[in-house]
Queue: 2 jobs
Job 1
Amino acid sequence: MAGKELQAVRGMNDIFPEESAGWQALEGDLRMLLALYDYGEVRLPLVESTELFARAIGDATDIVQKEMYTFADRNGDSLTLRPEGTAGCVRAAIQARSIRGQTPRYYYMGPMFRHERPQKGRYRQFHQLGVEVFGLPAAGTDAEVIVLSARILRTAGVTASLQINSLGSPAARIRYRTLLLDYLRPRRGELCADCRERMERNALRVLDCKVPACQEIARMAPHLVDHLDEDSAAHFASLQSLLTALDIPYLVNHSLVRGLDYYNRTVFEWVTDALGAQGTVLAGGRYDGLVAQLGGADTPAIGFAVGLERLLALQALQGRGIEAPHPLLFIGALDDIAVARAWRIAERLRDAGISVVTGGPATFKNVMKQAERSRARFQALIGAEQIAGEPLILKEQAGEGRWQGDPEALYEGLRSLGVDFPQHAPHTVPNFATARTSS
Ligand code: HAM
């Protein structure tokens, strides 16, 4: 009986070479760009104690209440697949004592896990690039981080608009919450079921509900920025004048409150309507209280994360998708004797940094089929004649290029057909030339 075909977990995707080429190009661009701003990579565990996320993200948040992949390990400890990277990064920085009197700039890239309802742009395993900066309280750092986020989107060729808000100090937020509840309670009946339930637990979240009736109510609600503490108000004003001076257009969105509890003061999101409902590409904010709350020294911090699937989807929409690279050369062996020779030549070309795929042993017709399927730019076949000393024919598969010569001189043949060789080949060409005599 044939075995049942197994499927990937819903909302978790496989990424094959046709797509991973685009991922690698994007990841490479992002890494280079982060180095320009002096960010260093931290590689963090995918699994942390459940308590970390409950304490950092907040017990009352949707993420902690409904979306975490939580399990008991063999010791009975409650562990969770990371739903985001900030909590783990802060935990690691405290543990490594790397933020005591220091101002590190960290980034991480990798999968995150949330049990959300999968749809276009929303997955259960998705990938983020996240950055976190520690030890710098001034609004200038908020501006720096926003400038970096703008460049990330520009580098990816993505157009989005910036929305900002300030959540002020925790005390100001508690005062505002009372005001907000006074406004919401008489309108409770008009809110969606989620918001009615959410209201007492996490009133600010009502402000960013996507249901039109709730949005209408949110629009008329008192504005948080009108009730900030004095320092936060000055901080927010300073950020706005910096953004203006840096020519970064923004909109103050009074409903922008974010879905994680650790934020204070600046929060921001880059949004687009090109992706349907999942319009937020990049999001973050300041979280000055989190390090101390997780047991570290009092340390201001700010960061953001960008969803790589969403960046790539936007790139694809804008026709900036990247094709998987094809090998430069296909070398086919027409019989068993030719195989060793073909493979050896291929290995030497690889020494010189040339991508080669080999095929055969098979009939001429089948080797030709393999050559075509390889999508290599050039093809060369080796058979009994070449073993007996006849020249080999090097052909451009989809063009006119053609060269004929000694199989051992394939490198020169490729060069005569105008191929640009990599500048930093793992080995040099003389290695190839010296090996000639030994075959
Ligand atoms: P977040 O808003 O939860 O923030 O997620 C940031 C970004 O991750 C979103 O804007 C989106 O692009 C992507 N994302 C989130 N959930 C999904 C999903 N289910 N499928 C696909 N993409 C998704 C955070 O995670 C914070 N840790 C950001 C931060 C860092 N704040 C300070 N430092």
Note: The pocket of histidyl-adenosine monophosphate is lined by residues 84-86, 114, 116, 122-123, 126, 128, 130, 132, 259-260, 280-285, 303-307, 309-310 (CB under 6 Å).
Job 2
Amino acid sequence: MSTPPLIAVATHHGSIAELLADAEFRSLANRDGFLIELRLDYFEDLCEATLAQALEVFAPNVLATYRCLEEGGKRQNVSDSERIHYLQLCADRGVKFIDIEARTPREGFDLRGAKLISSFHNFDRTPDDLESIWNSMAQQRDVDFIKIAVMPQTVFDTRPLLEILRKHGPRSILLAMGESGLWTRILAGRYGSPLTYARGESAPGTAPGQLTWRQLDELYRFREIGADWQVYGVIGNPVGQSLSPLIHNAALKQRSLSAVYLPFKVELRPAEFVKKFEPLGLRGLSVTIPHKEAVLPACDSLDPLAEKIGAVNTLVWDANFSIRGYNTDAEAAADSLQSALGPMAGKNVAVLGAGGAGRAVAFGVKSRGANVFICNRTPEKAQALLRDVGATVTGFDTLAQQKIDAIVNTTSLGMSPNVAESPLTESQIPPGCVVFDTVYNPRRTRLLELAQARGCRIVEGVEMFIAQGARQFELWTGQKAPVELMRQAVLAQLK
Ligand code: NAP
């Protein structure tokens, strides 16, 4: 078995004095599986004496970097020879890794047993000729590892990194910065890469998209991920606020499964993403806003309920790599509403919104015998749902005049960060009805506050979120989901 990859926690401190006073970084010194990346270019008080103090605490588990200005370094007017001088002091002190840009001359540099990382950074884009950049770096003298960090414009720009990782993973440290490139940080070990970078828990990080060391270590089990691990994830935009990685990684860990769940920010063309990134080891995906309908062409088959709804929130790969689409929102929403409303047969349920979630909720409650009313901003979408599910279309402003037993909000209004928004004003809420908001972040949305002020019973979206996630877990793994653990993980985060 290959050595588990390391987590290099980058210092962000403006001085060595500040670093030495940081209890979090001191606690990571010489901790198994971790390195401290000393960013010498950040330290205003850098001199031989202060560097010796830092190395006294952190060596040998150090990755020493003195970045040049052209590749993201912080210091003006520093010569290459001065940077090399300080890196040599680190090598002399026995640090494990030294990072030197491929462009920096290093004649006479003596590694003294340290591993050399030759690096290249592009903070604007992903260059077209990544493979030739990699090849020319690999030909340099004494290079142990090749680090290439690029800034993708979309997730599709990260695809060329996968090709290089599959060919040269054990010699490569490949990073796509920003939210679109998160997978390159989390899955490094799947391709045998020696390490990835992380930030301190309260640190801004030294590159966009850096996760904290604790997220990598505890949430994603970064050091355990091997070539045989299965990959699950959520595709959507935005996806950074999604709590799905929290519940699914907690569940996968609890069941000791060799699998990890990642957020993938996919702005456009979700079906193309699914096909192009399947080689990552994808075995299941959650699909969220706004892709639940657009992803349909990626499915080889559809579960009958998903077919009726015309939207999927779950993709499942079978053993033959055939992809089946499901919709776990419908049953999850119906269960959540039923817990407050009781049996739905003959009851009037108004669904606000006619997007992916709106369609799922409408079919879910209809299948339990409810009469469905649809309110949607765009009338054509409401009409389409009316035809498909058999419903009545109504306006947001006329709801309160009708006999409505329950309202389910499936618009994205009120979702963090737009927490002041609500699809209805207080007077538009029919008195005495049950109000269920599928938005779960925040737990208590503006709509639910208004409904409570109106004397209505409320249902939070978090219960539906847990139920739809539990169904996904069971479809993917064939195992019963640890529902209570998933609930605790979400509630702790939303507190
Ligand atoms: P979607 O397909 O993009 O649909 C968004 C819906 O919101 C559409 O009906 C849209 O109306 C409406 N909308 C957006 N902005 C609006 C505005 N300013 N005024 C009025 N209506 C507006 O998204 P989705 O996948 O259905 O998800 C929608 C929400 O459901 C999300 O907030 C998500 O958190 C929630 N959800 C929760 C769960 C859960 O487990 N709790 C599961 C799924 C979804 P138009 O048709 O006019 O654009």
Note: The longest strand covers residues 115-122.
